[in-house]
Amino acid sequence: MKTIQGPAIFLAQFAGDTAPFNALQNIAGWAKSLGYKGVQIPSWDARLFDLKRAAESKAYCDEVLDVLAKHGLQLTELSTHLQGQLVAVHPAYDAQFDGFAPPAVHNNPKARQKWAVEQMMFGAKASKNLGLKASVSFCGALAFPYLYPWPQRPAGLIEEAFAELGKRWKPILDVYEDNGVDLGYEIHPGEDVFDGVTFIAASCAGVAVARSTGVT
Question: What sections of the chain are H helices per DSSP?
Answer without folding.
Answer: 24-33, 51-56, 58-70, 81-85, 94-97, 109-129, 157-178, 196-212
